[in-house]
Each structure stands twice: as structure tokens, then as C-alpha cells.
């Protein structure tokens, strides 16, 4: 037996269903970005399981497809690509890992923070496709890959992904006492974290616990020295 090579599995959707959902108002069309997997998932047009690597667009209904749309999927058939572009729209195939796809579909799972913590939850950075998928699909003009402007051998960094693909955005968590902590920091002139996750003072660390930092065990021992039996340490006293 050879090595086990698991195949990627996608959730399928056809052109006629997208056009029908847009016409009925079930699928809102965003103005500033293309329709992506999150929009199709929220509109209940596809059911994504843990085994799925995204959405594959198929060309059934291409004869009557006439709605110009900007679409973003993970895979697309050639018939679907030709029909979308013939109608005046555009299509792009974008890769998501299982973790980044989960953070896109369910961002609230990555925004929770323990009570009293000053740091926000970090979303996962965008992952690069595996080498074979990158060269065959996502660097291919034929498949309208989102990395098709690159050439083999070019260095691709995850932080250079398109803006609508980059998920590494710091989100400010919400917990009881956050507003009071911010008001205290502003009154005393200390830096604090804004709603978008950025700090008010530049040139400092991205994650700074300006308010309510728990002291380390060494700092506690230095300020309040105690003996091994947990009794307060008194200089000159015999153990």
C-alpha cells in the first residue's frame, strides 16, 4: 500500500442557485468586496462541514445566467468561469486552510477573552496553499487564482495576501469593566487599546497590559517575602 493522500472535499453550488438567491434577495450583494464563502454560508445556500475545504462553483444553469457579480470561491469549473465573465462579472479562487475558513465563518469563536485580560484574541494569519494547489490552481490564470500575478520562485508572504483575505486582525474583546479601565487609562494619560485593536500611543508593543497587569510571582515574593512554611520572613529570625 502506498502513502495515504486525502483528497480535498468541497461543497458544491451551481450558477442558477446563486442567480436565484440574488434575485429573491436571499443573498445580499456587498458593494466593497466580492461575494465569498461567508456570504453563501450565511444565506444558507451551502452547508459546510469540518471535512470541507471550501466551495466549488459549478456551471449548471450557465445558459440563462446573466447577473454580473463578483464571486470568490475556492474552486470553479471552466464553464462557470466563462459564464460569470460573459455576464460582466468576475471570479477569483482563493485558498483557505481549515483554521482560517473556520475563523471566517465563525469569527465570534476567535474573539472571546477571559475576564480581566487586556489582550484581544488573535485571528489566524492567512495560510498559503500547498505547493501543488498553489502552482496548479491559485497561480493559474486559467483557474483565476488569487496569486496568478506571481511567478514560480517568487516569495509569497502570508501578510501580503489581499485585504479581504487577510484575517489577522486584532479584535478588541468585551468583558465587564472594560469601559472603566479605558476611562481610567485616559484620565491618567496611559495608553489603551482602541476598538479596532490598535494602541493610542505609537512605537510601543502591540500587546501591552497598561491596566490591571497581574504581578509575577517573583515580584510578589520580593515585595512580600515569606518563608518556606508560608510565614512572613523577618530578617534575623531563626527558621
TrEMBL record:
Region ranges (Disordered): 210-239
Residue span, Large ribosomal subunit protein uL15/eL18 domain: 13-92
Gene Ontology molecular function, alphabetical: structural constituent of ribosome
Keyword Ribonucleoprotein: yes
Keyword Transmembrane: no
GO biological process: one example: translation
Keywords: Ribonucleoprotein, Ribosomal protein
GO cellular component terms given for this protein: mitochondrial large ribosomal subunit
Biased composition, class Basic and acidic residues, residue ranges: 226-239
Similarity-based family: Belongs to the universal ribosomal protein uL15 family.
Name of protein: Ribosomal protein L15
Amino acid at each position: 500500500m502506498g502513502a495515504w493522500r486525502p483528497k480535498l472535499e468541497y461543497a458544491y453550488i451551481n450558477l442558477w442557485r446563486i442567480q436565484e438567491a440574488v434575485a429573491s434577495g436571499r443573498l445580499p450583494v456587498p458593494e466593497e468586496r466580492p461575494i465569498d464563502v461567508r456570504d453563501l454560508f450565511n444565506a444558507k445556500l451551502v452547508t459546510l462541514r469540518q471535512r470541507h475545504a471550501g466551495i466549488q462553483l459549478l456551471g449548471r444553469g450557465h445558459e440563462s445566467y446573466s447577473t454580473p457579480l463578483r464571486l470568490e470561491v475556492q474552486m470553479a469549473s471552466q464553464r462557470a468561469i466563462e459564464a460569470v465573465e460573459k455576464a460582466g462579472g468576475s471570479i477569483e479562487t482563493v485558498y483557505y486552510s481549515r483554521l482560517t475558513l473556520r475563523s471566517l465563518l465563525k469569527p465570534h469563536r476567535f474573539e472571546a477573552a477571559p475576564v480581566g485580560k487586556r489582550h484581544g484574541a488573535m485571528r489566524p494569519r492567512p495560510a498559503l496553499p500547498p505547493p501543488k494547489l498553489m502552482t496548479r490552481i491559485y497561480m493559474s490564470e486559467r483557474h483565476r487564482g488569487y496569486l496568478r500575478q506571481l511567478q514560480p520562485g517568487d516569495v509569497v508572504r502570508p501578510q501580503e495576501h489581499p485585504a479581504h483575505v487577510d484575517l489577522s486582525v486584532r479584535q478588541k474583546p468585551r468583558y465587564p469593566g472594560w469601559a472603566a479601565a479605558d476611562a481610567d487609562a485616559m484620565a491618567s494619560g496611559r495608553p489603551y487599546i482602541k476598538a479596532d485593536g490598535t494602541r493610542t500611543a505609537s512605537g510601543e508593543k502591540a500587546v501591552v497590559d497598561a491596566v490591571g497587569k497581574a504581578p509575577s510571582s517573583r515580584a510578589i515574593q520580593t515585595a512580600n517575602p515569606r518563608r518556606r512554611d508560608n510565614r512572613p520572613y523577618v530578617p534575623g529570625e531563626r527558621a
